[in-house]
What we know:
It is a single chain. By secondary structure, the protein is mainly α. It is built from 18 helices and no strands. Helix 2 packs parallel to helix 10 and helix 10 runs parallel beside helix 14 (342-350).
Amino acid sequence: MKLRDEILSAGRWTTSSTIFRVMLQYAQTMILARILTPSDFGHMAIIAALIAIVGIIADFGISNALIHFQTPNSDILSSLYWINIIISFLLTILFIFVANPITSFYGAPELYTPLLLVSAIFPISAVGNQFKVLAEKELRFIGLIWIEVFSALCGFLITIILAINHYGIYSLIAAILTSTSIKSLLFFIFLSTKYRIKLKLNLYGLRKYFRYGAYKLGETFISTLINQSDIFLGGYFAGASNIGLYSTPRDQNLTIANSFVNPIATRISMPAMAKVQRDQKSLKNIYLTTLRMTSSINFPIYTFICFFAAEIIAILLGPQWKEANFYMTIFAVWGGIRSVGNPTGSLLYSTGNVHRAFWWNIALLVTTFTILFFSVSQYGLKGLSIGMLAIQLVIFIPVWRYLVYPTCGAKLNEYLAQLLPPLIIASVSGLIAWRLSNYLNFKNCFLTLCFASVIFTTIYIFLSIKFNRLWFLTMKKFLSL
Length: 481
C-alpha cells in the first residue's frame, strides 16, 4: 500500500474514533455543567494542568524518540520500557509530597485529596504507553482505536453515575483514572504481542534516545508550561474556585484543535514526515497539505463558535454559565489562530529538530509569562483572555520564520496560501449565517444554531468547491469507503 493510501486509511479510523470520543466529551460537559458547579470545574482545571506538566516528565521524550528512530531491538525496547515505569513511580511519590504545598499556594485545601488520587495516573499510563506509540508508528490504528473508544465510554459512564450521586469533583477524578487504567491495560494485553519485553535494564545503546528525549522533554515541558500558565496564574490571582468560568470555555475551544482535528492529522502525518525526513520537497508537501487540511476544518468551526458563542454556551453549559459568553468568543478567535501552529510540532519532531523547538519555547515562555502576569494582575480574568489572544497574534509570523521555513523550506507565500482560502470562506459563511439568523430572530437557541449551522455549512462547502478545491477533493476521497 502506498504511503498516501496508508495515511488515508489510518485517517478514516482515527477520525471515527476521535469524533466518537469528542462527542462523548461534549456530552459529558453538557451533563456535568448542569450537575456540578463552576467551582468544581475550576478545581479540576488546576488538577488537569498539573497532570499535564508532570505527565510530560513521566514520558521523558521517549515516545517521540521511538517514532523518530528506526524500531530498536528487544533489549533496547525493554530497557526504555522499565525506565519509563521507574520514572513514573518516582513522579507519583513526588506528586504526593507536593500536594500539600500546592493546596496552600492556591488557598484551596479541598484540592488535597483529589491530588493524592490522581497521582496514580502516571505509572498506570506507563504500563501501556510504549505499545501505543509503536502501533502508531506502524500506522496500526484499528486495534488502537477500539481500545480508546471503549476506555472513553467507560470513563464517561463512571463520571455521570458518580456526578448524579453527588460525588462532585471526585466524579471527574474517577473518570480519568478509569479510562486511563482500562486503556493502558488493553494496550499492554493486545498491542504488546509483537514486542517481547524482558526483565532487563541496560543503559548501553540508549544514548541517542536519551539525547533526543532530553531535548524533547525540555521542549515539551516548557511548551506545556506555556499552555497551562494562564490556568496557574488565573487560579492564583482570581482563585481556584472562580477560574471555572474562564477555563471551561477555554478548554472547549482547545478540545476542537487539540483533541479533535489536529490529533487526527498529526498522529498520522508525523510518522509520514518521519519516513521522508531527508527529502525536503516531500516533507514540505506533506506539511503544507496537513496545514491546509487542518485549517480548512478548524477555521470554519472556530468562526461559527465566534459568531454564535452565546447560543453555544446556553446549550452546552446552561443559562447559569451566561457570564462565560465573553470568554467563549475570545477563545474562539484564539483557538483558530493557535490551531495553525500545531502541525509545526510534528514537522520538528519528525525531522529531529527538537533543539530548535526547545529554544523557541524558552523565548516564548518568557514572553507568555510576562504578558499574562501583567494582564491578569491588572485586568483580571477578562484581561487574561485578551492577553492570550494577543500572544497568538504576536507570534504568528515568527512561527513560520524560525520554525517552519528552516525545517522544510516553505516560503511565506506558500504558508499563507494554505491559510487564507479557508479563513476567508469561513468568515464569509459565518457573517451570512449570523445576519440571516438575526434577521429571522428565532428566540430559541437550539433553533438558531440548527438554522445557522445548515446555512453556514452549505455556503462553506459551496465556496470550497470553487476556492478551496484541493481540500474538497481530498475530503471527498477521504470519506469515500
